[in-house]
Each structure stands twice: as structure tokens, then as C-alpha cells.
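Honest question from a wet-lab person: if I give you the sequences of every part of a complex, can you actually get the arrangement of the whole thing, not just the pieces? Trying it with mine:
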Amino acid sequence: MRRLTSVACLLALAALALLGGCGEPQFNDAEKKTIASLALNTLPSLKPDTTNQYADAPAAAALGSTLFFDVGMSRDGTVSCSTCHKIDRQFQDDLPQAVGVGRTNRRTMPLAGVARNPWFFWDGRRDSLWAQALTPLENPLEQAGNRAAFAHYIEKRFGERYERIFGPLPDLSTVPANASPLGTDAEKAAWNAMSAAQQDDVNRVYANIGKAIAAFERSIEPQQTRFDRFAIDLATGAKPEGDAAFSPEEILGLKLFIGKANCVSCHNGPRFTDNAFHNTGVPPADGLPPDRGRVDAVAQVQADPFNCFGKFRDGDESACRELRFMVKDGPQIMRAYKTPSLRGAADRPPYMHAGQFATLDEVMAHYSKAPPSVEGGSEVHPLDLSERERAALVAFVKTLSD
Amino acid sequence: MASIWRYILAGLGLAALLVGIVAAVYLMLPQPAPAPDISRSKSTANGLFVASFEPERGVIRQGELQSWLLTLKTAAGAPVEGAAITVSGGMPQHDHGLPTSPQATDYLGDGRYRIDGIKFTMSGWWQLRFAISAAVGSDSVVFNIVL
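Yes, you can. This is the full assembly:
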């Protein structure tokens, strides 16, 4: 009889162990493969930027760093790149819309991994990091300067450092103090009165300012998070320990993220972005001018003299395939915006291209409901997520910040 | 001796339980949807050409701009030269087109055309449609690519 009892106990234990095993968080092979593809250890090393021959020159990065934090790089001496791209705030500013000299109509983007982008700004209106860096410098709502003034400023403040990197500065003695093809009427008139050679000289110095800032920004890379530690343990079969262990809610959030909620369709790869543009039906922000996203950016990047086809590009045109093969028209680019990386997103509300959503809860509610777009067609479909599922997705996104 | 039979019976019981659990898990797995035709070589819609479509470097890398080769032969097997090719496509299940505008950029001889600027930004079912116009006439073909 005692033996019978012990056998029954053994059976019960075996059954419990089996059922217990089923209750453990489990991922199938396809899920494991997807999770591994999101981990930071799959991020390839940063490719050289052949359009910027100074991209990996330490002296250029050092000058770029100085310029990035220098409020002298603005019309009224109060705004630098770092005014909105704050170093202690993931290089963003926590505001719904950036405020430089004036208030813009777009959310400041964080900079981790920025050098890996094929397109810049929410709408991709620039095609290289150095061309991007030039744009706020002359935007009247951001740094509000003009390229002639910047060339003079570089000569006066950083002439020696500049020349050690880029070679001799041009003769700027007859260049007006303020001139730009994009500035005020007076600045435009002054620009148009300059000779083509002078314009070229100033544009060259201006392009090099962008190349130095870009060289600095290449060093800003994403950091490992709790999710990455969990993903590495899952891939190697090790049991996640300490903060690498996920709670049941975080596991559910991850399963939804790569499954039913389809987040991973666009938020894919180790940066959680497909680097492409999508209309997801995000409503316009109140009180801002009409914003059509990628539709208007296409013409802007084509018209930019500092784009990859322009004469200020280093290297050959083989680097310009993104620009060459970009989608130029069609309904899909109406109100399409770039998929942002989700790394660190939980720590930087508000969300979307004009800070439309104050919290991640609001973001999940939007994607669960998937309202139609005010213009163009939204690519997302209603998910009808439960409150528990939305909370689980938020819990998972937070693991990309810890 | 009777106790040995008890152990055997218990073993059988445990085995039955295991089989039951494995079967239950198997039955609960989602059934895959019918897969689209992913052949890399096929006749064009009206049978004018035989088209083959392969990544130029052999592998598909998600998220990278890649070039592919479209090889066109007549039904009799002769290479099709001087074809005008336009490319379109998208993801049928996501209501969106291609994230790039691929183009036929080079003729490499022997009916082979380089289609450059292809980028698959996400996993799933993609379609690439080619409208082909050559001396013998015009035809089209659709290739399915599942990542």
C-alpha cells in the first residue's frame, strides 16, 4: 500500500511539473527569432558615410561637438542644437513642439543612433545627417541664422580649428554680414548680389559646419536595456536573472508587440524602426498649420542644394540610392511620418510628430482604436485591445528604457 | 512481484498523460494560412515571356536597399532584349505600396535586367509587379516574396 501511495505521489509530481512547465512564459521558435532580431547585439557597426569625408575624423567631431552646444550659432545668441536636443534628456526636450527662437510645429526627435537613419526629420525632408544639421540653423523658428553670418562666425571664433580640418577658409572679406537664399528679404537680396563664386564659398563653409556636427552626432548610440538582457538570455537559453527577468505582464506585452498587436511590422530591427514613412491616422495637433508629412518633404529634399545629388557631397553618387529610389508620389505618402525608434520612448513623452499624445496609454488607445486619417488612408486597423493588453504593451515598452 | 506491475501501470499512465498533453498543445497551435505562390520563375500573365526574379547577391536582407535581377526569355527560350520595364507592388495584407520606387537600371545581356532600389522594410507577404514591353508585345508578371 505504501508503494502505491509513493507511485501516486510520483505521478502527481510529474503531472504538476508538466503543467507547471506549460505555465512558464514560452515563446515558439518564430517568436524567439523575432525577439532576437530586436536585440541591440544585432545592431551592425556604423557604416562609413562616404558623402561626408570628415564623418569619422576626431577633430571634426570635436569641432562639431563645440558647435552643437554653442548658442553663438543662432541669430540672437540664445539657441544651439542642444537647446532642443538636450544631452541629459536623450537629446530631446520633452515638449510637444520644439521651441527655438520661435515655436515650431514638430516634436524634437531624440538622437540615439541617428547616424543610422536614411532620412531625417519626421517627414524625411533631408537625406543625410550633415544636410539635416544645416536646416535648423537657418529655420526662422529654430536657430534663425543665415549662412553668411555663420561663415563669418566660424572664421572669427573657430578659424584655426576649421582650417586644420577642412583646409583654408575662403576670402570672406567682401561677403555681406548677413545673406542667405532662405532668409529675410534683405538677406535674400544680399545673397543674390553675391557672385556665384562667393555663394559657392559660403555654401562650402556652411556644408562643412554640417559635416562637423554630423561627425559629432555619429557618436550618439543607443544603450543596452532590460529588454536586451532578456533577449540575450532567451536566445542563449540562459534563465534571465535579476532585472533581465520579465514579469508576466511584460511577457504578455512582448508577445502582443510581436504578435496580435502587429507593432513589430514597423517597429522592427534592433532600433525598433523600419526607417520608413507611414500614415497611422495620428490626428493633427490643435492650433498648428496643415501638415501633410512626407508629401511635402519629397519636394523639399529634391530642392535641397545639400542633398546627395548636390555638389557638396563627398564621394560618388552610388551613396545616393535612397534619394534616387525614393517614392515621390502616390496616396501612401499623404500624412506619412517616419517610424520612430522605441528605445527610451517610455521616458520621453509626449508622443508623435507634434506631441499629440501625452502618455503611452494614449498611444496604445490610438492604435487599438485605429481611427481613420484626416487626409490620406491610415495603414493600421483596429486591434480592439483590452485594458489589460494595452497596459501590458506599455509595460513592455518600458523595458526599452530601463 | 505485484508491485512491478504497479510501476509498469504507473509508467503507462504517465506516458498516456504526456501523449495527451502533447496532442492538446499541437491541436491548439494556429493553422498557417495558405501560402502564396513564391516561385522565382514563371510565365507572364499572357504567356508572352518566361520571367525569373532573383536577388543579385543571392540573399534577401530586410531593411536594406538591394538590387535584383529580372531575366526575361521568350516562350521558346530566347533572351528578350530592349524591354521597357516598370515596377510596382506592395503588401496586399497591409494596404500599402512599396517603400521605395525600384527601377530597371541596367541591361546586363542574355535577357537579364538589373532592378535596383528594392527594399523590404518588414516581414510578411510582398508583391512585385512588372509591366514589360518588348518588340514581341507587352505583358506583366507578379512575384510573391514572403519574408
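Two things worth pointing out. The first strand of chain A starts at residue 277 and ends at 278. Residues 16-23 of chain A have pLDDT under 50 and may be disordered.
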